[in-house]
Amino acid sequence: MSEDRVIIDEKKITYSGLIAIGGFYKAMKQELDDLGYGPYEDYHAEEVHEDGKQILITFRGDKKVSDFAKIVWESKVAISQATEVTVQKGHQKTKMHKASAEVKSIVVLSTDYDKSFEQNAWLYFLRVVIDKFVFKSYVSRAMSQAKKDYSLFESKIKSFLNLENFR
User: Which of 41, 60, 52 is nearest to 16 (CA)?
Assistant: First the structure.
């Protein structure tokens, strides 16, 4: 059984105001791709309610640190009360959405993800010993890399959302 260590546990980014939903989608996917996670859309649903549209998207991706460890990323995006508005930017009119957005992210470090050390009891014991004494600094480096990736992701998404106020 692979060992999973939760690094970021449902950290939230919230925003309410004008948003270009297509641009927000592209910015999230591009940022995760730039960080090396190879994101893919696991879930996408849109519902139309009286108070506006609700959009739910789940992005997943992973980044292999080595043959022994990988960082697994999951971000759930919930956009609610999205109503279309027309905004004038300079001399042209642009359609945007007035909405509330929330991004919840979970980042997990998974070691022995291909289960190569689980073939028998001796290999499992060897994995526990190696993990405790040999790979301890390596795993802590991978955890700090995942935290750094999340802080970069968070700052880029927050700056994108804040820029929407000034466009």
Answer: 52
Can you say how many angstroms the Cα of residue 141 is from the centroid of all Cα atoms in its chain? 20
pLDDT confidence tier of residue 165, bands split at 50, 70 and 90: low
Q: What sign does the dihedral 22-24-26-28 (CA atoms) show?
A: negative
| 74-102 pLDDT, tens digit each | 999 999 999 888 888 778 888 888 999 99
3-state secondary structure of 149: helix
Q: For residues 120 and 117, what is the distance between their CA atoms, to the nearest angstrom? A: 8
Taking the alpha carbons at both ends of the chain, their separation in whole angstroms is 49
**The pLDDT of residue 106:** 95
pTM for this model (two decimals): 0.82
Gap between the Cα atoms of 143 and 157, Å rounded: 21
CA neighbor of 65 nearest in space, from 23, 105, 114: 114
Phi, psi values for residue 130, rounded to 5°: -65, -40
Indicate whether 167 pLDDT > 50: no
CA 142 to centroid of chain Cα atoms: 17
